[in-house]
What does this fold into?
Amino acid sequence: MADELYFDDFKLGQKFHSNGSLKVTAQEITEFAQKYDPQPFHLDEAAGKSTFFKGQAASGWLTAALVMRMRVDTIKVHGGMIGAGVEEIRWTHPVRPSDSLRTDTEVVGLRLSKSRPELGLVTIYTLTLNQNNEVVMKSTVKFFAPRRQQQQ
It folds into this structure.
């Protein structure tokens, strides 16, 4: 695809904004919680009332998965975004049913791979915001991106 990015296309300070937003539903929060994080405040509104969150809140891991979806939809890396690690992930505000999430991402690091010269390592910092512009998650992650073939 012509719009796929290679390591060579990334620049320090380059910014990416998600294509629209993702709306989080109570059903999605509950289903994820039932399968992966069955804590009372994730399972339903009533169960969450007497907890720290005072109602239903999405698992941070669901939020992280939604952010990954937005990254993949926004930053189209040739061959896919191959994860190389997470430096930081912070959940700063609960995600509630009916919240709409969007991401603002900045390239904060670039280096060639020492062991795989055909790859570069891209470090990005992402802020995830809800419809009220409240930051719900901050993360710094690294991924590998292929380099363009060198012309002979």
Summary: The chain is about 20% helix and 35% strand. The helical segments are 26-36, 40-43, 45-48, 60-74. The longest helix spans residues 60-74.
